Amino acid sequence: MAIFLFFLLSSVCVGAVLGMILSKNQAYSALFLVLAFTCLGGLFGLIGAPFMAVVQIIIYAGAIMVLFIFVIMMINLREGLSSEKKKWTIAFSVVLALVLLLELVLASKGASLGQSPEGSVSPKEIGQLLFTKYLYPFEITSVLIIAALVGAIVLVKKKEKE
Amino acid sequence: MIPASYFFFLSIILFVLGIIAFFIKRDLITQFMAVEIMLNAANLAFIALAKSHHFVDAQVIVFFIITVAAAEAAIGLAIILLIFRQKKSIKTEEISSMKG
Q1: Which residues on A lie below 8 Å from B5 (Cβ)?
Q2: Which domain holds residue B15?
Q3: Residues A1-25: pLDDT tens digits?
């Protein structure tokens, strides 16, 4: 059952990423990406990380992609962008990507990927780690988020006429 | 139980697809989405390796990666919006001058 779910979710995920690459319209690309991130959330749940699954779906598929879609709406390109400029650049990049894939697979052959133990990590464990061992990084992350928010607002704000 | 190597190979495939998308696409927003795909592939690899070694801290680190990605998305989209206001375009081949 679990292995069936894994193959279903992973094939939908890879298919959604392919659809994002092949679609000309950016809004469709963003929606395909929402599908891919939701499937990744399901995969996180399957591997025994339920907290990360929920975070993935809320933050990635929810917040970040909504931000993308807002920006696509603000930019509002009438004509679709043609993705390919020269055919040989596509062929070249695909060949290079396949070389990279081969390289990564060969490199990961040596990695020690033993049998994964049963059971999942409860949110309680993560919370305990987050507020004891990783307390300072957690606080610094909140400062980072504030800085990013203020920076984004300052960047996008229209300048007043002098 | 599914072996962790399956998840690891899926993350490799996603990373390579992200790189292909980054090089084939010619507009800033889709290339930015490709970067997000690569970040997610890295997260999946992280969680798969953490699972096979039973290392709980990795999930906390993935949590940090996701929050940093959120901050990065906000700033990056603001910059893309600024570029669009100045150049009236987000195609990468039309953004070739160094002076803003």
Answers
A1: 108, 113
A2: 4-87
A3: 788 999 999 999 999 999 999 888 8
Is the Cβ of B63 closer than 8 Å to some Cβ of chain A?
yes
pTM of the predicted protein model: 0.87
- Count of other CB atoms within 10 angstroms of residue B91: 14
CA A39 to chain centre: 11
Q: Which of A21, A25, A37, A38 is nearest to A72 (CA)?
A: A25
Strand-pair partners of B27: B91
Alpha-carbon distance A26 to A34, whole Å? 12
Supply the DSSP symbol for B100: -
Alpha-carbon distance A130 to nearest alpha carbon in chain B (angstroms): 7
Residue owning tokens 């490799």: B12
In a domain, A117, yes or no: no
User: What's the gap between Cα A91 and its chain centre?
Assistant: 25
CA nearest to B41 within chain A: A40
Range of the domain at A66: 1-80
The two three-digit tokens of residue A50, written as one number: 């339920």
Contact B64, B13 (CB under 8 A): no
The yes-or-no verdict on residue A107 having pLDDT over 80 is yes
- DSSP for residue A118: S
